[in-house]
Amino acid sequence: MERYEQWRFFWRLFFGDDSYGLNVKDSVAEAGTQVIVYPWSGGRENELWTIDSEGHIISQLNDQLVIGIDTSDPPQTVLCQLSDGDQTQQWTIVNGMLQNVSTQTVMTGTSGQPSTGWDVVLDVPSGSVTVDNQYWQFASYFSAPPAAVPQWTVIQSALSSGNTSLVLDLQNGSTAVGTQVVVSDQDPEDTTQQWISTPDGRILNYRGNQLVLALGDSLGDGKNYVNVQTQAVPANSSQLWTPQPGGYYQNVNTGFYLSVAGNQPTPGSYLVTSDLDQGISGQVFSSLPPNALGSVLAVGPLPFPAFEANSDQFAAYVSINQQLVALGDFLGDIRSTYTNTDLTSNYSLWASQIQHDLTCPSTIALHDWNFVSVQLQTELQAVTAVQTLFTNYSSYHTQAFAGQIALVNGLIADAGVTNNGPDIGGVVLSVISGVLYTVLEAIPGAGTGVNAFAVLGNIIQAGINIGVASEGAEKISADPFAVKVGDLWITLSAQFNNLLTATGAMETAILTDWGKLSQTFTLIKSSGPDSLAWSPDLTSQLVKASVPGFTVSIMQMLMPSKYQIYSWIQSNDNEFSGVSPLVQRIESNGDGTYTHYWIASGSDWSDYPIDDAMNDCFAADNSAYDFFHSATGWTFAQVFSNYQPDVSNYLSVTVSNQTYNTLIVSLTMIEGQNRGNSNPTVYSYLSTTLLGYYYDGLSMQVEIYDPNISSSSCIASFVAHQHDSVFEGADCWVDTETQNSGYSLGTPICNSGSYQDYSGAIQVTVFYNPSPS
User: Fold this and answer.
1) Does residue 491 have a pLDDT over 90?
2) Do 269 and 404 reside in the same domain of the chain?
3) What percent of the chain has pLDDT over 70?
4) Would you say 208 and 200 are in contact if contact means Cβ atoms under 8 Å apart?
5) Same structural domain for residues 570 and 701?
6) How confident is the model over 190-236, as pLDDT tens digits?
7) Last residue of a domain, one of 239, 268, 288
8) Are residues 270 and 311 in the same domain?
9) Would you say residue 521 lies in a domain?
10) Does residue 245 have a cis bond before it (omega within 30 degrees)?
11) 3-class DSSP state for residue 232?
12) Residue where one domain finishes, among candidates 247, 265, 288
């Protein structure tokens, strides 16, 4: 037997534009299990089928189970053990009906409900026009993956201030615990307006110690002001929010909804919780960029109208194809061209020819001809728009990602990194996220600027989700890598190509499904935060806005392999004389002393980066505080310096949390003494430093916990060691690494100390991928 179809979904016309189809009841892969009509469930094995050359409809649950009929009256469809030659298991497609070869009766949907499904019985076929409950159509399907990695976004209110969007912000820009959350005019450069929503329902602010949206003081009747607080460990229900359909956010603890107080479209208005009122715009919020494409890809299969249920409509479709072929533009079926991007320029011509040049045969009712004609014109317009959208993205991708080898090589030269140095570590997704983050800052906050970022964020985020869920060579890895600097571009470019492949798969999924195509076309024609409009001059604007984020993301990989952060306490705020101010930072301690931070080589504290490298690091106007404190993507080793003769007997161990989860670090001294915090909390995208001291050997057992998983079983651990230091810095290293529950450790950075100058330093980054490859 030869199978001539891929796994598909059998869609039933009776439900119109909704996706209902043949389904093995309760996924029981046994002969005798009833086959029913059931709502689309995302591409599960019990709803996918293929047909072989003998007419067997085979279940993906088991290739030896096919659809047959039972002995009830009337007969119902059930799974049967495949038996060659048994015509009760063989089916033909006639005018959109599935006809049993043995009985000549056809599958017919009956009564039912979504929770239990609808029975399918065998009945006599209808007349010349196939009735809806006997019409079936094979539909291509696409299983949209869940979001792979949360991204920083702006949370926009449905309220607006004049022509400016109102977005969630921290009052007066304060990052203090307890700060009231307000709505403000959108300012792309204001990082207190940027948030990340985690899968467990936390909404974290970008600035400060990753404070979380939470319930503040009581307003009475169970309602509250909304402020930001330190993340509870483990997560507290008052700090958890459930997104609800329609753009509402419901607090898990009280059940009340995030609201703009008084529904006032005024900058500075407080955020509170209140009862749900679906007529109030102040309770409706959306993320920028939105996930409109993700929603489109998640809808169930909806095939193009095949017109087979109506003989005149089908004849009209055939005639239109024949007349277009006679004009010499293509061969075969017009719909088979929809995924051919070489024909984009032809579609508007064909739509015009269908409207103006083709003639309705006298044997076909004019109203049926017009129905098919209008449908095909609409399809061609939608295909043109979608192909153009993805062509524009491909052009952007080539310039912003695939064509950046010269930029990467220039950054490597600026950083002074060579193949003789440590491996370069990182996560490719951080480069892509860094680009989106800086575009979010660069694009204006009102008018078409919002749309501009929306379309790019929509495509890239959906592409990431598809790529991360892929298998084999086309997979986008969410796991950390470590390579020699000479192989960095090879690693990056392969993953960038996979992103382009993923967006191509998305385009194909849209172009081969009428539901997805029509919804995407609507978004392309729309304005507002969900818009997929891509104006002719947008590509160059987006490429320009992407370069700073790309630059910083690459430097976040390169710089920690050669440089580390030194610091000491001093009694004044003087910088080093004759040293570039870019490589140093002074912070007041509030007691008359100051901490002086500077960046230099891991082997020489006076070997500073060149200014070109530092300008690269700050290309996106990112925070110097974050840079010198190893936060928000920077993962430097932090060194202990105190002018003591035995300073090289210290070992500084920095743990960087590059996840959206709050972690607890626990230090146990196997050999030596603890001279710092033995049980610090390290919040999302921040770092913490442990400090050990010894005279004759040092071993530090470091265990890392995610309290939302377990307070007794760690998600990662390692042991940090340092040899004896006599008159020179001693070697340090890491061993006995463990990792689980989706967490992984990056390649450790291990830098020896210097006698009488500074300690040894180790840096380890924690990554999280809930679906590791």
Assistant:
1) yes
2) no
3) 93
4) no
5) yes
6) 788 989 999 999 999 988 777 999 999 999 999 999 999 999 988 89
7) 288
8) no
9) yes
10) no
11) coil
12) 288
> Token match 């439900």: residue?
15
**Model pLDDT for residues 155-190, shown as the tens digit of each residue:** 989 887 666 778 999 999 999 999 999 999 888 777
| Dihedral of alpha carbons 21, 26, 27, 33, sign | negative
To which H or E segment does residue 279 belong?
none
Mean pLDDT of 593-621: 95
Residues 13 and 41 in one domain: yes
- Does residue 445 register a pLDDT over 50? no
Task: Give the structural domain span for 232.
Answer: 153-288
Note whether residue 376 is domain-resident: yes
CATH no. for residue 234?
Answer: 2.80.10.50
Neighbours of 668 (CB within 10 A): 13
Which of residues 255 and 291 earns the better pLDDT score?
Answer: 255
State residue 31's pLDDT score: 96
Question: What total number of domains does the chain contain?
Answer: 4
Q: Which token pair is 107?
A: 């599958």
Residue 573 and residue 555 share a domain: no
Q: Which DSSP helix (H) or strand (E) runs through 377? A: helix 366-397
Looking at the chain, the whole-number percentage of residues with pLDDT higher than 90 is 62
Amino acid at 227: N
Q: Over the stretch 683-720, which tens digit does the pLDDT of each residue have?
A: 999 999 999 998 777 999 999 999 999 999 999 999 99
Is 258 part of any domain?
yes
> What gap in Å lies between CA 520 and CA 295, rounded to an integer?
10
Q: Averaging pLDDT over each range in 53-62, 105-114, 643-652, which range is the top one?
A: 53-62
Residues 6+ apart with CB under 8 A from 402: 493, 496, 497, 500
Residue 1 falls within a domain, yes or no? no
Same domain for 686 and 547? no
Binning pLDDT at 50, 70 and 90, where does residue 329 land? low
Q: Which helix (H) or strand (E) holds 375?
A: helix 366-397
Owner of token pair 């085979």: 58
Quick one: pLDDT band at residue 106, thresholds 50, 70, 90? very high
Q: Which residues are within 8 A (CB) of 12 and not within 5 positions of it... i.e. 6 or more apart?
A: 20, 21, 22, 37, 109, 133, 135, 136
Q: Chain centroid to CA 311: how far?
A: 45
Q: In the structure encoding, which two tokens stand for residue 398, read together?
A: 């080539």
Do residues 261 and 327 share a domain?
no
| CATH code assigned at 647 | 2.60.270.50
Count of H-run helices and E-run strands, the chain: 12, 40
- Mean pLDDT score of the chain: 89
Q: Are the beta carbons of 652 and 691 closer than 8 angstroms?
A: yes
**Beta 650-657 vs 760-768: how paired, if at all?**
parallel
Q: What is the pLDDT of residue 5?
A: 46
Extended beta strands in 103-161, E state: 106-113, 117-123, 136-139, 153-161
Give the pair of three-digit tokens for residue 600: 């230099």
Q: What is the pLDDT of residue 527?
A: 77
DSSP assigned state of 179: P
Handedness of CA 459, 465, 470, 475 (dihedral sign): positive
Helix/strand/coil percent split, the chain, to 5: 30, 30, 40
pLDDT of 630 > 50? The answer is: yes
Q: What's the pLDDT at 219?
A: 95
- SS3 for 520-582 is HHHHHHCCCCCCCCCCCCHHHHHHHHHHHHHHHHHHHHHHHHCEEEEEEEECCCCCCCCCCHH
Q: Looking at residue 279, what is its pLDDT?
A: 78
The residues with which 8 forms a beta bridge, in sequence order, are 49
88-99 as b/e: b if 16+ CB within 10 A: bbbbebebbbbb
Q: Which two tokens stand for residue 271?
A: 């955020």
* C-alpha distance from residue 339 to each of 273, 334, 509 (Å): 48, 11, 9
The pLDDT-based confidence of 321 (bands split at 50, 70, 90) is very high
